[in-house]
Give the backbone structure.
Amino acid sequence: MIKRWLKRIVSLTAFGAVVAGFAFALRPEPAVVDLASVEYGPVTVTIVEEGRTQIRDVYQVFAPVAGEIDRSTLDVGDPVRAGLTIIAEIHPARAAFRDERTRRELEARRQSSEAAVGQAEAEVRRAQSDYGLAKAELGRTDYLHGKGIASRAAFDRATAKLETTKEMLLQAIASLRMRRSDLESARARLIPPTAMPDRRPNGCCVTVIAPHDGVALSIPSKSERVVTQGTLLAEVGDPDDLEIVVDLLSSDAVRIAPGTPVRILQWGGTEALQARVRRIDPVGFTKVSALGIEEQRVGVVLDLVSKPAKYGRLDHGFRVSTEIIAKRIDRALRLPLGALFRDDNAWAVFRIEGETAHLVRIDTGIRDTSHVQVLGGLNEGDRVVVYPGNSIEDGSSVEDRAAPRENLDTIEGLRNVLKDMQSWFSALVDSLAQKMRFSD
């Protein structure tokens, strides 16, 4: 009887151990996740935007008079000296070719001027004759007035007539000069371009000199050509006096102020350049993005803090990438951005307690490209799940991906031990059963 009960107890114990082993071995495996710690560190809010370099003061040189200039001897990039380097020499332009109608009109104007000269010469001869007659009449009247024959009134009339005829003669002479000048003008208009004398006599040219030290930034045209007054001849500037212009979104421009530090990236060098915001334009403008979206932009001007020797061959009109530091906290409680997710209308993370993930809502502050500031809900040293998947929820069992192999080896070892125990208990039960059968 005792042997039978002993056999039952051993069998039940073995069965319980086997069931417990299977339950432990077949339990759900924890989710393998990436973990990160909440720690203190810097958080920097930056605004990244493309910009372009430009020389601070660009001098545009225009033609002061109309004329013709020779082929330019300057090339883009050539050094210029203020008051010494000749930008261009402006000569009188040659006469233009005329069509047949214009030529006939000018010929008719010449003939009309010749006729007017002939008419003016006739007026001069008539005025000279009247003047001679008035002069002779005054002489006779003066003689008779001296003899007492002619009255004083007659003498005065003769004097006045002489003065009048003299003025008419002078007027006729002036009119003749004017008509002759008109004739010369009409004849000059008929001179063809090939009959013009040398257009470069001494003292005829206007020399345009460089207004500032630097280099030639642009030459609109190097060829000999006719220019009008105000034609752009060249642009001059100092390449060592660079600034950077950035077109920021208006929502980003209000977050910065003059003096804000800036890092210049992707300019061609290995090290980032340092700059500062000098001016924020008070007026915005509309710009269409590459996606066809209208954006309100504001021009921001940056001054380079780095020395010219550091940025080498960076010149006018080069593209750069700017990183404007809008705000920075050197010591902030932070966690990786990848740990954040939305829970209803709040930000939340999965905080690890032991081997279990617990959903915790947190308050956040500023954030940069990799971290976010924690204002409440977590403490320094807390571990959170980074990039949690849909399979993780509040209370899920998790395991750090950084040490998965050790845990898997432990579980596999426990399973092997349970299998050995199962085999040992089976062998023990069989041995006891055989002994009891022989004893019976």
The radius of gyration is 53 Å. The first helix runs from residue 2 to 25. The mean pLDDT is 83. Residues 2-28+404-439 form one domain.
